[in-house]
Structure prediction request, 524 residues.
Amino acid sequence: MKWISVEEAINYREDRFSPMKKKPKPIWVIAGTSLISALLAGGAVYFTAPYWSGEPAAEAETATREDEHGHGAGHKEDGDEEAVVSLPKEMWEASKLRVQQVDRQTITMQTWATGKITLNEDRSANIYSITEGRAHEVPVNLGDQVDEGQTLAIIDSREVGTAKLELYQARLQEKFAKQANAFAQQVKTNALQLIDALDRNATAEEIEKTLGDKPIGKYREQLLGAYTALVQAQTDFDRIEPIAGTGAIAGKQLIEARANLNTAKASFNAVLEQLRFAVPQDALEAEQAVQQAEQAVNVAKAKLNILGYEDAELEKIEPDEKNGHLSHYEVVAPFAGTIIAKNVVLAERVGIDTEMFRLADLLTVWVQADIYQKDLPAIARLGETLTFRAPTAGDGSLHTHTAKIFYRGDVLDADTRTLRLQAIAENKDRHLKPGMFVEIEIPSAETQDILAVPEAAIQEVEEKSVVFVQQSETEFRMVPVVTGSTSDGVVEVRQGLKVGDKVITSGGFALKSELMKGEIGHGH
Prediction:
């Protein structure tokens, strides 16, 4: 007989000595009376069983573990699929605990197609500069909310500066042309009045009184010169003609006087005829010069309008503007939205092919889904709206949304044999993120009689679907279930429950927390 300690027994169990090994001879240990009693009580267990067997040690270890851990609320044994959680009645209200009896239901079956959230392409834009230059200022950052017309960047542009100077010069020419035209129109009016006065043989005094202080321009000299020559020739002829009849002067002088008079008349009539045409023509040319100047102004303004400038912004242009403002070109937001991409920094060279920003209005988003050919009949039952589920950004739980359908597709994709379905959804809380995958509900005319529970009753524990079933007033058993289809917030339960079971439909998270707390407390 051999007395061994607990530690030696455990070591013997782990070593698993073969029963064919020779058994050692017993050793007696002589000790005091109290020591012998303790050894007899403690060693009896090991002496009565073969030392190569691990059963007594395993039982002792199991008993010790049970004594150390015990069995409390929420404890789940290894290999046990169901656990019981206790929750006092007074904690139900705080946990919003609700119990519902399991029953069979007739539901309309629904399927879910995978879709995704995309930007509203009607409210998203890639922002480019339509002129080359250098980034003088970039006052916005990635993620900024901007208003319509807000400045996103200021570009120093030679093209803009040149165009503004051209407009300034064109306006100066227009101003001068208008002044010249105004004078030409006055001259035209006065010259025609003078021609009429001379044509009707008005006296010099009358002409001086009527037109003496009015502008006639170069026509005054031409008209009055011809008229004076005519008056002089007429005076000479009138003086010589009476004398020539008396023989006091030679007849040759009379002939010369008559010739001079006829020449003066011809010259005067020629001047009148010429100026009757030339005066209006010169005035017309002055008007045309104004039109040309105005056209040059319009062309210069159009160049700047193409660059995005409004007429009001071009009312005042000064070529001696300080700080280079004359060449500044502002890139502005075409609509209110969020800067979702920024590709320009201060002093960077910018070209017409440089995508400076990407702007998107995230208050609405598009929902896209590729519908398989077999599901096309169900699309007609959607009406004008569709329902889809998307995870929240906070806890990842699914939330149901609606979207207005605006395109049902016309052509199937040759590779995937699917039809593109598109809808627009409100996104005022910015919960829906472009690029996010969603589930789109496709209604069906099929109905089934199934065992069902509310969707909120299903919990996920260790990647398994479970429900909590009430088995007493304060005790709830966690039961694994196998689920099927989902429709209108109801989940089919194919295995794990029976009609009449009372399941938790609200507050299951509190029971799940108690369960996890119990497992942590027991070292699992």
User: Anything to note?
Assistant: The longest strand covers residues 437-454. Residues 167 and 298 are 8 Å apart (CA to CA).
